[in-house]
Amino acid sequence: MYNRRTFLRDAAMGAATGLGGCSVFRPLLPTDFDFPVIDIHGHIFNGTDIPVLGYLDQVFLRDPHSDIEPPGLLGALLRLLVFILREATPDAETELSFLRTAPEGDFAPTVTGRSDAGDAAAVARALAKFRADLANRDAAPSLDGSDPDQELLELLGGPDGQQPDLAPSIGAPADFATAQRIYERRAGQNTYLRNSRIFQTVRWAGLLTRPRSRILDEYVTLYKAGGNVAVVSPSVLDFELWFRANDQISPMADQVEVMSEIARRNDDMLVLNFLQFCPIRAALERARGRNPLALLERAVFRRGFAGVKLYPPLGYKPTDNDDTGIFGEKPGKKVRGADINRELDALYTWCSRHDVPIKSHATNSNAAGVCTALNASPALWEPVLTAYPDLRVNLAHFGRFDETGADDTCNGGPTDWEELTAQLVASNDGLYSDLGYWVAAYDGPASETSRIRRRLRTLIRQYPTLPDRLMFGTDWSMLAREPTHPNYIGRIENVTRSVGLDIRSVFHDNAITYLGLRPDTPQWTRLAAFFGEERLQGALT
């Protein structure tokens, strides 16, 4: 159980072991914004909000963007990540109880020391448990006779060979020394630079052991001062019924309540949450005689939520799913394609009626099953937009110019999802796309980043409405797996300027229109009732 004693322990451990002195260097590229930036695509969740085993096994492992160097260590890394993400991570109910008993005006009433030092302490404890597990089970050597788990420990421990024999005690000095090394960033440190992706993935997992309010603190530190971000739109995720593993997660209703309370209390920036809609869960609720949209209605009408998230790569299409197909991974919680279609149609009708925008994952990634990433194709949205012309939909990631997809052999794979999106934008007034996790546009060989910029310039010339529909997004904290993430806003600003896009449109104006944040709209009325008219207006101007 994560409680007040755990918070204090993390702070004390950080001080006692020197972890409080870990120096995480955050270089920030200068930005030039004289207006409040809107990040339309974010995530503020921790390790109790997602099915950790299912996500790592079915999504992370098959994603080509999870490749690490040296090769062969991914399985070992995933085993370590499970220990980290489960290390005293507070569930939604626990954090909500802290927030609700704190004085008004105290945004994060936990412990201010739960930052890099607390993350490192959690990683140190997880390393000890990982070693204990390794000592108590048969080794699983690779085909060449190597031991990936031990190699990972040696890699993280560094060239000094400071990893102890496999006779661990929780909090052993070597584990804290390893954690401190993981969180250090020394200029010119060749080992860090060479292994920065694997180190950053461990740091990302450490971040997700924090309370959600502290994860938001990290976002504010990174992107408010350095990027003038005034509004962020994170999504509360609902993956549970699409994964085989039986993970215990925070109930969706608790996640809605804690993120609503965080949004209400946080004065640093305006937090406009979206709630993921799971058509399986909706179909099961309907079968029990309950309102399948009850939680969504509560979130939007009473808890300050601004929209709906869809995640087709989990295993469904936006429409026209096979009527007789079986969907879902949990015994006793599977439904037919006809049920999926019915619930999606009900959602689209509800969103159209109440002026609620939709944000949908639309890049060939994060598949929960073989070839299911193709369900994110922009082409599959055309019949939805035809049937529901009043919808406002954000096809997130604008294809990402990185359509390698999962390592599956799939027929009908993507060729140019960017152009598919641009074509739909040209023929649908309510269609938008964001630039979340657009790392491929700046981080890679010069020949590839130049190709992407040339391609974007061409699309802008061919589709004149496109500049009015592209929106800035980070996809943070998922983006935090990338070593370059602190510089993301400056780098995307550079890309957008270089292709001739209007900066204010991309980083502010287009998101205002997509979100429906104009006075006298239903969206404005709802959000002003929750946040207050003055606060809402102040964040947007």
From TrEMBL:
It holds the Pfam family Amidohydro_2. The lineage of its organism: Bacteria, Pseudomonadati, Pseudomonadota, Alphaproteobacteria, Rhodobacterales. This is Amidohydrolase. Coiled coil: none annotated. GO terms for molecular function: hydrolase activity. Residues 257-515 form the Amidohydrolase-related domain. Residues 138-170 are annotated as: Disordered. It comes from the Bacteria.
